[in-house]
Amino acid sequence: MARRTAASSYDERDVRVRPGRGSRPRSKLRPAHADATPALVIAVDRGRYTCVLDGRTVTAMTARELGRKAVVVGDRVGLVGDVSGAPGTLARIVRVEERTTVLRRTADDDDPVERVIVANADQLMIVTAVADPEPRPRLIDRALVAAFDAGIEPLLCLTKADLADPAALLASYAPLQVPAVVTRLAPGSPIGVGEVAEHLRDRATVLVGHSGVGKSTLVNALVPGADRATGQVNVVTGRGRHTSTSAVALALPDGGWVIDTPGIRSFGLAHVDPGRLILAFPDLAAETPACPRGCTHADGAPECGLDAALAAGRVDPARLASYRRLLASRDLQAGDWDA
Ligand SMILES: Nc1nc2c(ncn2[C@@H]2O[C@H](COP(=O)(O)OP(=O)(O)OP(=O)(O)O)[C@@H](O)[C@H]2O)c(=O)[nH]1
Ligand SMILES: [Zn+2]
Prior knowledge:
Helix content is 22%, strand content 22%.
């Protein structure tokens, strides 16, 4: 105090803006970092988050105050610090906005640890070749379960239609009313990519599919300059593959995002609750109030209301059979795309 009065007009404590916490006015009414810049996370690599805002790319790390909360591709975040995106700069993620959807998986069916793969996706495009490699319907079913469970709309993309007829595969998914597109993307004769682009426009779409089905070929056709590596003969198992390879979001030229998931080698479904899955099938769910408590609605579940509805002709037999097939896929072992 003595110094202040003696020094009369000037005290450096009055004018210096200290960096960090102390400089920021806060009150209980004002959320922390209300001035944080909104951004979208498009890639994650070893604790560094690639974010986009106003069309520029900014690298960020998570602020300590976020704690152990995971930040994933698709997250809408608030950034503070240097958000210029200039080389060598690093912004801080101080906030993660509430997610509209969360696509999860467990590493395997008996693995209780859930991992969030992508946040805020509104569509899951399941890519399957009609031949080379042979389709794996069980894996399609499992991916559908993950999508329905997450409240994300599924889209089936059948590639390599030049090699085999997709009709049988399409027919087996028709009762589930899953939209489907068929492509033939062999060099020189791209067919169907325009239709895929229509389905993807202005939406955030996650791509899944096992190795060699033509995901990268498709992404390259959809996103000019994406430069995804194609044509690798992949004999690498999940263990052998670099585990930090994670999802990456690529901007589509007509709006929207396609999110490639090269690191995902399996689709464990331990987290899926059958009681929640049926909500994706409102016509079937309407018949379940008659079910006994805790009914799994599976084939042979005692006194399941769905059987009564089937007998009374109120539900489509093919649709119910398809639903129960999905339900059963959850209980089968080995969710490896490459199994
Ligand atoms: N005949 C035919 N071949 C295709 C088609 N689409 C892609 N291919 C070929 O299939 C092979 C695998 O395609 P990729 O795009 O690398 O497949 P991917 O799903 O990205 O595979 P990974 O990179 O291993 O995950 C490549 O040799 C492609 O040229 C198609 O529609 N018809
Ligand atoms: Zn039931």
